[in-house]
Amino acid sequence: MAKERALTLEALRVMDAIDRRGSFAAAADELGRVPSALSYTMQKLEEELDVVLFDRSGHRTKFTNVGRMLLERGRVLLEAADKLTTDAEALARGWETHLTLVTEAL
């Protein structure tokens, strides 16, 4: 059986929400979860990757350089996943993903 990996789209969504909202509590509110669940998700990710994602020395949540890089690259993956989902749903409803235009010379 394959080991469950901590680097998931959900973990990347958590990181994105923490960055946009500025705290675990505000991110948890946005995601409809409790702050401890977000902390657990981030802790598992840090353990799996053997990195520190957050500078915990201050009051405000701040990403380390590694955390910022993972967040920025993760956002690219999140956008791609969202587009993939949107395209799949559109195709399932009968919409084409490309438009072809033909013109005639006069």
From TrEMBL:
Is Zinc tagged as a keyword? no
The family database entries (SUPFAM superfamilies) matched by this protein are listed as:
Winged helix' DNA-binding domain (SSF46785)
* InterPro entries per the UniProt record, alphabetical: LysR_HTH_N, WH-like_DNA-bd_sf, WH_DNA-bd_sf
Which keywords does the record carry? DNA-binding, Transcription, Transcription regulation
- The lineage's top-level taxon is Bacteria
What name does UniProt use for this protein?
LysR family transcriptional regulator
Q: Which family does it belong to?
A: Belongs to the LysR transcriptional regulatory family.
Source organism: Salmonella enterica subsp. enterica serovar Bovismorbificans
Q: Which residues form the HTH lysR-type domain?
A: 7-64
> Annotated Gene Ontology MF terms?
DNA-binding transcription factor activity; transcription cis-regulatory region binding
